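Re: the request from the purification team.
They wanted to know what the chain is likely to look like in 3D before they choose a buffer screen. I agreed to run a prediction and write the result into the notebook, where they can find it.
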Amino acid sequence: MTNRVKIITLLSLLLIIFSSIGFAKVDDEGNLEIKNDYISIFVNQNEHNQGRFAIDVTGGAPMREGDDGKPLIYGHPNPWTSYTTIRIDGENYVFGGKTKKRAGKNAKYGTLVQEPQIEDGRIVTKYKYGKILVTQILSFVKSTTTALPDTAQIRYRITNQGESSKEVGARVMIDTMLGENDGAPFRIKNKAITADKVYSSDEMPSFWQAFDTLSNPKVTAQGTIKGPGLTQADKVYFADWGSLADDAWKFEFNPGQEFMRKGEFELDSAMALFWQPQKLSPGETKDYVTNYGLGGITVVPGLLSLGVTSPAEIVMDRPDKKAQIVAYVQNTAEIEAEDVKIELKLPEQLKLESEKRIKNLGHMKPGATAQVMWEISPKNVNPKQLDYQVEVTAENTDDNQVTRGLRVVGPPNLGIDIKGPTRIKKENNHLSQEQFDIYGVITNVGNSTAYGVNSTIVLPPGLEIAKGEKVNKFLGQLKPGETIKVPWLVDTIGIIDGDLPYYVEVNSDNTARKSEKSSVVLPKLTPKLKIEFNKKDFEVGDYVTANIKLENITDFYQINFSLKYDQYVLEAIYISRGKLFVDNKELLSFNRPDLEQGGLIKNLSASLDAPQEVKSDIIAQIHFKVLAKGNSNLEFENLNVFDSKQHHINLKREIENINFKEE
């Protein structure tokens, strides 16, 4: 299938970009959308509410039919109910375009830098708040419980482009919605949350889930708060949407109060992740990242319907790594289930932490739902697929059992290989190339995905990053065995020779920082004072220009000399100041000698206001008229070139003398 652009009307543009993650388009409402087989992410492109986003289910869970086309975040026809707040030095700014609606109506706003656009399969939007640049990046990632790319990653990259530190924080508010159900409980650890609740960092769950009914769940949503590649929030609030919509930061929060929309009489749940303000130094960048999408629950219907969820894999990046297993039980019988018990059965390679293996749920009325949680950990790091069972029993109904698997995998491990020139050649006393490419070849040689991969090049004196290039490059995630080639365009600066070492460094959210060293040899360039004519062929009667140039001087300050020539062949007409002695249109010290002495230009002198390095620059231009045939016979006399300490600089003299012809 090929990419194509179809113009429907002047006001309707449909852009389709096929890629491995799906495709992107502008939908019928003008939203910019990326879509795969599981979910779609769409972003408002209107002047008002620009940058706000929503998520829909497309194909959804492969084995479930009822979730196709259902919303996960309220958003039709154009997203506006969810919004993000950037807090800068105590002031609250809403990300994106201004709104006329309730959500963030009275807040402050920033300046559009980049309207929503597709970059590498992601939707990227940029706004600026003074010197703070905020980039919203929305992309597909794998769910921790389904291992499928059915989850949206919500990333805010905040950069301080100013010259002073700022206190910067963020709040991401998500207007959750499960199909037609806008008030389903948030299921967290062993509780169903139906009223205002806050979790602080010390009790933060790894993830939460929500579904309408266990016996036949149409949509199962999951927010992932902790884990590789994510920035754990300081606090997470579950509350009614109205309260969160009305206030951009601090809002009306009533623990235990049902999710009734503020000022109205409808259930309307939402959540907000808070990252408290922290110091952001000049030039510093910080990411705030969370995931929201579909959740994976293995469900077996029955009189006691049983659903079990857990991470699809446990990455053993530390010896004390733990994972949560959550089980949901619903009594779908018409009678009360008596003395309900639930039991976790683990394989030998997994161990239970402090919880009891068997938990008593007591009596369960018809339609009642209960949930329990166990924390488990692998006994070793040997990669392996492991299956466990959860069984539920009651005195007066049939038993039920679910088997679910998880993989134990080793940590990611990033390797670096550097590709670049090892030596730059010398041509005509100059470098053969003053700009070249260095590539960092980054490979994940580990057994699990590396998240939030960053690469950086560290250059020595004599090399610098080319204009428009970035020293630090964000690479996203790198799967096991995946390789990415990261280019940097590098300029040579100054007159430095020898073996110049440089480093490529790489780090990620779940690997240690690594660096690899390489080097490039720059040749020694000869300091020269040269005379070159503006062309090669002259005849008697022509006017010619002799350019006097300095080359490869590391610390030049002052020069004076006299210049001999054949007065019967040439007549000196005028001396022009060279570019070296013009600084931002300001004329520096330059002495034009008397030209009346035939055959000798005496005591031409010039100096800079401050010493500088000279790669190649013109000191002066001497304009002659050719009087007769013969050789120019140019020759320096009394040459003195000084550095900043008034020491003589030894130079090689290189003079181009020309024989002139008759007309």
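For the purification team: The CA atoms of residues 470 and 488 lie 8 Å apart.
Please add any questions underneath this entry.
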